[in-house]
Amino acid sequence: xxxxxxxxxxxxxxxxxxxxxxxxxxxxxxxxxxxxxxxxxxxxxxxxxxxxxxxxxxxxxxxxxxxxxxxxxxxxxxxxxxxxxxxxxxxxxxxxxxxxxxxxxxxxxxxxxxxxxxxxxxxxxxxxxxxxxxxxxxxxxxxxxxxxxxxxxxxxxxxxxxxxxxxxxxxxxxxxxxxxxxxxxxxxxxxxxxxxxxxxxxxxxxxxxxxxxxxxxxxxxxxxxxxxxxxxxxxxxxxxxxxxxxxxxxxxxxxxxxxxxxxxxxxxxxxxxxxxxxxxxxxxxxxxxxxxxxxxxxxxxxxxxxxxxxxxxxxxxxxxxxxxxxxxxxxxxxxxxxxxxxxxxxxxxxxxxxxxxxxxxxxxxxxxxxxxxxxxxxxxxxxxxxxxxxxxxxxxxxxxxxxxxxxxxxxxxxxxxxxxxxxxxxxxxxxxxxxxxxxxxxxxxxxxxxxxxxxxxxxxxxxxxxxxxxxxxxxxxxxxxxxxxxxxxxxxxxxxxxxxxxxxxxxxxxxxxxxxxxxxxxxxxxxxxxxxxxxxxxxxxxxxxxxxxxxxxxxxxxxxxxxxxxxxxxxxxxxxxxxxxxxxxxxxxxxxxxxxxxxxxxxxxxxxxxxxxxxxxxxxxxxxxxxxxxxxxxxxxxxxxxxxxxxxxxxxxxxxxxxxxxxxxxxxxxxxxxxxxxxxxxxxxxxxxxxxxxxxxxxxxxxxxxxxxxxxxxxxxxxxxxxxxxxxxxxxxxxxxxxxxxxxxxxxxxxxxxxxxxxxxxxxxxxxxxxxxxxxxxxxxxxxxxxxxxxxxxxxxxxxxxxxxxxxxxxxxxxxxxxxxxxxxxxxxxxxxxxxxxxxxxxxxxxxxxxxxxxxxxxxxxxxxxxxxxxxxxxxxxxxxxxxxxxxxxxxxxxxxxxxxxxxxxxxxxxxxxxxxxxxxxxxxxxxxxxxxxxxxxxxxxxxxxxxxxxxxxxxxxxxxxxxxxxxxxxxxxxxxxxxxxxxxxxxxxxxxxxxxxxxxxxxxxxxxxxxxxxxxxxxxxxxxxxxxxxxxxxxxxxxxxxxxxxxxxxxxxxxxxxxxxxxxxxxxxxxxxxxxxxxxxxxxxxxxxxxxxxxxxxxxxxxxxxxxxxxxxxxxxxxxxxxxxxxxxxxxxxxxxxxxxxxxxxxxxxxxxxxxxxxxxxxxxxxxxxxxxxxxxxxxxxxxxxxxxxxxxxxxxxxxxxxxxxxxxxxxxxxxxxxxxxxxxxxxxxxxxxxxxxxxxxxxxxxxxxxxxxxxxxxxxxxxxxxxxxxxxxxxxxxxxxxxxxxxxxxxxxxxxxxxxxxxxxxxxxxxxxxxxxxxxxxxxxxxxxxxxxxxxxxxxxxxxxxxxxxxxxxxxxxxxxxxxxxxxxxxxxxxxxxxxxxxxxxxxxxxxxxxxxxxxxxxxxxxxxxxxxxxxxxxxxxxxxxxxxxxxxxxxxxxxx
Length: 1443
Hints:
By secondary structure, the protein is α+β, with helices and mostly antiparallel strands. It is built from 53 helices and 36 strands. A hairpin with a 3-residue loop joins strand 3 and strand 4.
């Protein structure tokens, strides 16, 4: 057997190594690629485990992988052997995975999905990454390719393969071999052989660059010795004849290669040498009869990974038109994974690429595969048992179609889209780093080989469609470089080194961008990094040195580019744009030495630049990022801000700086003069360790006005607040305004501050000064806050002897200062004793306070000389008790004094402690400020759990006692308070809600106790009237009708105008008794309403008629009055109400009963007109005629017109020939009749026209021919011609979709109507799942189509013997075809149809109800089409149908 390569090639391998550096120089590669090889570079990037994204989803392992035979023999409907737990992870649609089979696409424009708009886009392709790729033309190779085509008729280039040599195949069968100096080493083959074999369609060089395999367009394969240029093998029988070689690939085993032909088959080629004779054995791995393979990719391991456990399997990835497969060639043929694409564009190119990556602390191969715009990454691992596992990584969504995928390293990939644009992508962040246009390359495409034009084009249409964009043989990658073969040139692309990327930006004068990019290299956040090696500190040092150089250049450029002339604002803006960049990066690089020496010296040459530089330092100083500023810069900084009058900024800077190197006295003087108190305190504390002097200076300012009783200015208030905070910080061990006091100084500072506070007299005190001035001043300034400071200090103190003495001493001083002086308010005194009560209530209390002092405070608060500050004194005492001071008092005396002082909240607090909740009710009722809260209190006690039954009973009884009360406005206020303003008089609605909730069984008792009728009326209205807004369940109350009728009687007395409105919402009253009540109070309208409700229509009518006649009589006999007579309005209102009464009830009456209502009404209206003579018409005759006409129009709907005329003519007055009086009435009735007759005729005509138009369009829709949108099935996406089975039918829908009946049947797109099967469109019904699925789409035509003829067949074929079909149904049923046609017809209208409008008009008119005396009439229904703001009633012709 032969072991390839043989000994002849050893010398050639050495030669290849010696020339590799020369090629790198020729290709303008950086020297770093020769120092750090491609393998080293990958390893360096791969083992950055902190950058690896481990958010991955494992694909379930297949227990028993299928055999290759089972995959080749599987049918289209068989489930895939490799299924994800979540199919959406790979965007696999729920339809068949085999959406595109080998012969399923009829032509390149099927479905026209290539132009679908992508929904998701990557981020911007250029975002501060600089130029990532460098591309250059290989001029030597390009020139010789053109020369070979011209001089030796080599033809255009067709394929390229790159190793340490570069091989280019041509259209006339020649293989040109170039070395790394672009010199032509060999020209293999001849044009005569090319005429026999065709163009070279594929090339492959083995690992050690000793052998070359050439595949030809007519199917032959040749093997060449690259050392000697000899032809070693010419293989013609490795695969079926008549098919072109699409791919040929060496594996890591030099005796094993794989080829793929245009029939879609894959063959394994084994090279042997027996007895000096070279042979080749072929074995079919995948047959194209079950789906063409159009891309193969064996796994190549790097030299340093040749012992990797995965390499023993010799893995091969294959991509067919429907799925990808990963198989192992060794030790025996085995399928390790199959994976379906899902749904994609049939013209997109399948792509495969292997690469070893680091993940989970190990290096394993990763397969990238894509077809269309989604790239999937699968990580392949071998476990301990020897099985291979596949895990899915995060996939990459794009917005363009790919035609090439190349790994640059484990993190960076280069993609080529169908518009010939290169996209550099970072795999883990999915960020697009750069986009490069390469249309100038004029890339060679392999379309002719995929279409196998050299052998007659006998390939499937699907493979030919993929071949339109195929460029597999035109792109080759090696050693971190990508070679692109053009029609007349060869280009090489590679990643720029980090230094080259920075320099590229500098050349373009983008200094800021160059610094930002360099900083990203420094921090390790940059993408696609090349040329940085070593550990992190070494890499940072290299980048930092380069950044320092750029910063010097940047500084010089900033000064040179400064505008010499113009406004000062222009110069400031220039430096504000430039100088902060210098400061930022110097501080980021931690080069303060550079910043404050060379950089500052350079910028100080320009005064504007110097000022901007100093202002740039401020945010860093304030955030404590910049410490240790040189004294000179610090001095310049303060002077600069002082000159610009920015004193607040100066103060903020001082408290963040180390000021020991400055002139302390000068700084203190500046701070005091400019009111920078925080800075002054900071300088004293940090500069001199002096803590008392700042207090003395501040006390001198605020003490005199406080002692004199003057109001402090805003400035003095600020100083006082700062003093309190400063004292608090000192006593707590914190520095002011920020930080902490050194631990060794804390006890000393605390003692100094305490001694200062409790001084008997201040330094330089006047004889008139009162004792303890500092404590007195602070108490006067803000008693509560000063005591809070002391309280916090007491908590921090440890219980040592000195601390206890300090606490007792300061408490004694506080008592002496405040109790012995009368110039403190009750609130201030209360604050002191509240503070003392809290301290005394502590379990570890060591303070002593004389109890008589508390009694004095109680007397002071409860027995003042005047009645001022009542609520303030009460609140102070309440806080004192809540803080624990209650133990200092005798409770009975406390309650007595609180009641005397009217401190009801104090009484409530004491009663609550003793659980005397019933007495608290009196506290609420006596307190004018809180009396209305008593209802909530009673409700909470009675409803919230936690109170005993006895307590609830006492509260219940107390509430019952206070239910009634009199709000007598004549009594003085105090008398009413003493007599308790009771619950009902307080707020009737709240009282009613309380009674309904908790006293429902005693309602009658409560009502009986309420003697005041007005009070009872308000109470009952709140209880019974649902409009009052209280939440009472009337059903649970079970109120007797007597109470309701009592309320109605009170309502008649106190609010007669609201009786009808109330009765309409009220329930539970008896009609007879209520009628008697309303008659008693002579409320005739209410009586009529009740009689009508009772059913006595004539009784109600007679009452209304009497009212109307009396009002008519009033206006008939009255004299001359103004037109706006209120009595006329009464007549109009009464007439309208009476008409409404008649209209409501006429529907339920016979003709005689109707006439008994309407004719008396008409007589009553016409009687006044008879009395007035025509010569002297009555003042209101026109108004009365109008009302009479209204009566006639209303009664015409219920009484025949002849009856009305006969009744009028039978009248004795008109029977004597006085028809002129009623001529107007009769003519008006006739006009109304004519109008209604015309309206009816017009409506009928319009509806008839619509009906005719609708029927014409329905007939046209049914008889219209169909035009399918595509010539393939919308489910299986196969051409309708593909299936030749006689039983299969083609179904076309009116929506344009076309299906095989077999496919529709599998999707259950059938419905049964009257025992017959009807088809529904799968796509349309699935897109309208929320609506009527089966009704919205329907079949129109169905036919059996053969290549020679078209025959229409009926849509269903019922059996002749089926009795169910023959039965006639009692009512017609629309089939889906008719439903769809009707829906299309309805959609032609822009809005509601005329029939719908007229129907609603008639319904709303017929259902009108005129309730008498009701405040609101019921409008149209809420869903009415007339309420639409866009509604317009237009009589327009029907719309024109669109073809």
